Amino acid sequence: MKKWNITLSFLFVVLFCANVSGATVDDNVYNALAPCYSENLIASYGPVPVFDGDNKLKSAGKSTLFTDNDTFQKEWYQKMHQLYENTKCEIDEKYSYPRGPVISYGTDALGSVIIGIYEKEETDSAFREKIYSTIKSEADLLGIDDLPVIFFIAPMPELQSSRTDNWRPIIGGIQGGSDIGPCSIGFAATRNGQNGFVTTGHIGDTGATVYQPNFKTRWAQSQSLQEGQHLIHHLSSTAMLQLKSLKVL
To answer: What is the superkingdom listed in this entry's lineage (predicted)?
Structure first.
């Protein structure tokens, strides 16, 4: 199996899982998605693209109709997006990791439904048929004929950044800090209509200044804030961070 990191090729897969409208399907797109349809392919249903052992396109499947008919392409993408929206909750609840082996689900720029199976898990034809039947039943209700579906081997995505890096937008689990020391920014929350994050209370009292990712420390007063660091004001000792006061220093 071809090993993937979060590289350009994998990002193509992720980006095209979203609702694509009017995207140009050219050699760059085929080359980026080829591994899903060749060395990483587990099973396919319907008119999917076919690649040879060198990842060269042999048959374009449903996307054959895209190059000469832009209206058909847009309408097909819209149908695929609606199909995804109507089935994503059931697929997630029944089959998504860790409840099941599915770690990615969506549609790609070639017009196929794509289901990524975690590379350390195994599935049999009966299991795949259950997932396919769920998707196909909804496709029939939407009037979608000749539905292309692929199951492919996928790696577990890995972050290339650490919790101490600069994160924009701010998310949970990364480092923040005040002049007292570091803290971990927790989960997103809303208090009295104010969006923010919950953290541990040891970061400071109400009104304390919190930075991400770096902080001024008592033992390193000479440490200066670099351009791009952000200031966040504490709302309370329960560490609700007020995002409206976020500003670049």
So the answer is: Archaea
Identity at 119, one-letter amino acid code: E
CB contact set of 12 (below 8 Å; sequence gap of 6+): 29, 32, 33, 109
Contacts of 22 (CB under 8 A, 6+ apart): 70, 73, 74, 77
Residue with tokens 């899903």: 36
Grade residue 21 by pLDDT with cuts at 50, 70 and 90. Answer: very low
Half-sphere exposure of 45 (CA within 13 A, CB side): 17
Can you give the pTM of this predicted structure? 0.61
Domain ranges in the chain are 8-154, 175-248
DSSP type of residue 152: E
Please say whether the beta carbons of 50 and 34 come within 8 A. no
Q: Token pair of 192, please?
A: 């009295």
How far is it, in rounded angstroms, from Cα 217 to Cα 163? 18
Give CA–CA dist 108/17, Å, rounded. Answer: 5
Q: Which residues contact 45 (CB under 8 A, 6 or more apart)?
A: 132, 136, 147, 148, 149, 150
Q: Which two tokens stand for residue 169?
A: 């937008």
Statement: residue 220 has pLDDT above 80: no
Q: What is the mean pLDDT of residues 210-214?
A: 76
